[in-house]
Amino acid sequence: MNKPQLPQLNEIFLFLMILFIGLVLRLIHLNGPLSFDEVCSWSFARRTPFIQMWNVALSDPTPPLYYAVLHFTMRFLGDTPALMRIPSVVFGMLILPLVYWCMRQGSFRKMDGLYAVLLVSVSSMLVYYSQELRAYIMLAFLGVLSVGLLLRCLRNPTLANNLFYAVAIFIMSYTHHYGLFLLAAQILCIILYRRWQTLLVSLLTSALIALPLFLRILQGKFNYSDAIDRVTNWGAVIALINMLNVGTIDLITITEQQPGPHVAYQNFSMNLAISIVGLVIFLIIFLIGLTKLKGYAPEQRQFMVILGICIVVPVTLALLAGSPLSPRPQWLLRGLIYIWPLYYMLAVVNCSKSRFKGFFIAIIVLINCLSLYPYYTMFSRCKEATALEQLNSRTTNI
User: Fold this and answer.
1) Three-state DSSP class for 221?
2) Would residue 309 be called left, alpha or beta, if left means φ above 0 and alpha means ψ between -120 and 50 degrees?
3) How far apart are CA 310 and CA 73, in angstroms?
4) At how many degrees (to 10) do helices 179-192 and 136-155 cross?
5) What's the rounded Cα separation, in Å, for the pair 347 and 200?
6) Helix, strand, or coil here: 303?
7) What is the distance between the alpha carbons of residues 372 and 124, in angstroms, rounded to a whole number?
């Protein structure tokens, strides 16, 4: 039997090291106090029996699938914050091998796949949502999975591949309604590459998704959030671009109040400098990709197109949904969380043929480390946690 070659062993070791780094980052401060939205998740998931929990959760703007996962987590593990957040950690970790798999599906080298996994593992945005008791990181996992399965269908539209893809997008629709924006982008990709059997499967699945949703709208049971900050404005656009480039670093004086983590250094100049560096680096990376486009293989160019469509279309639809063009504006930044892994993959793809690729990857990693520092040292999901703990200790001692 032939022994594994040294380069292959090195790649396996690097992959495991990246997974370890990602896990450690997602476990730090995992037992922090619950935020208001997390308390809502706990409130829905704790109901029994299960069918009652599911029916009650249908009244929430977020579909009940994540609440079902949390329901059984609480039943078997308990309801301390750290234990309840384990499903989010698991989904956040499962994204890492999925990203590597997608990169290989796109015909990129193993090292490029490892670079993409590294960026996703240290992403402050994905770390944040991997520690949140909400459905968003599960949505990100299913979003990346559906893109990888879509690519398989475009390359090899067998019945099995189409069925796996249909199941993935159906489950995604019951995780968060913003998954429908990604589904719209994927249908556009299918039409662009003329895979009519896959199109039929996706349209039939979309009908199964849309019918109960349409009935709920007719019955007046489709609920919106009443958050006053969910409206598209220039602050929303800047917040999206900034968080794609630098993660959780927030320019709140520019972006105003937008849904998402608000983490920043006390010195605004520091936040602004990090944001500018991130913007410049990603602009350079994408310009390099455009100049070297002819050097990519057809499968690689297809992968780039799919990633681009699956980023641009959901963003456009989300921004329109938060504008006066929508009956009730509902802009939700964290509902687009699945584009972050796609964005990092696209960045690696675009600089994959540059001799400065290692430099660009290192800068992006550094930016996310700078974002994670204030997140770990200054951020609390519940700002009132200290006061509540003191109040609790005093009232229980009386």
Assistant:
1) coil
2) alpha
3) 32
4) 10
5) 32
6) helix
7) 6
The tens place of each residue's pLDDT in the chain, 398 residues long, gives: 455 454 677 888 999 999 999 999 999 989 888 888 899 899 999 988 999 888 888 877 788 999 999 999 999 999 899 999 999 999 999 999 999 999 999 989 999 999 999 999 999 999 999 999 999 999 999 999 999 999 999 999 999 999 999 999 999 999 998 999 999 999 999 999 999 999 999 999 999 998 888 887 777 777 766 665 678 888 888 889 999 999 988 887 777 665 567 788 888 899 999 999 999 999 999 999 999 999 999 999 999 999 999 999 999 999 998 888 887 888 888 899 999 999 999 999 999 999 999 999 999 999 999 999 999 988 877 665 544 444 444 544 44
Each domain of the chain, given as residue ranges in start order, spans 11-30+85-381
Residues 290 and 51: their CA atoms lie apart, in Å, by: 52
**Residue 131 carries which side chain, given as an amino acid letter?**
Q
Q: List the beta bridge partners of residue 249.
A: 263
DSSP 9-68: HHHHHHHHHHHHHHHHHHHTTTTPPP-HHHHHHHHHHT-SSHHHHHHHHTTSSS-SHHHH
Ramachandran region, residue 382 (left: φ > 0; alpha: ψ -120 to 50; beta: rest): beta
Crossing angle of helices 196-218 and 179-192, in 10° steps, is 150
- Both structure tokens of 99: 């990203």
Q: What is the Cα–Cα distance from 155 to 395, expressed in whole angstroms?
A: 64
User: Is it true that the peptide bond before 49 is cis, omega within 30 degrees of 0?
Assistant: yes
Query: How far is Cα of residue 201 from the mean position of the Cα atoms in its chain?
Result: 25
Tokens coding 356:
């400065």
Q: Give the Å distances, CA to CA, from 343 to 173, 304, 350.
A: 21, 10, 11
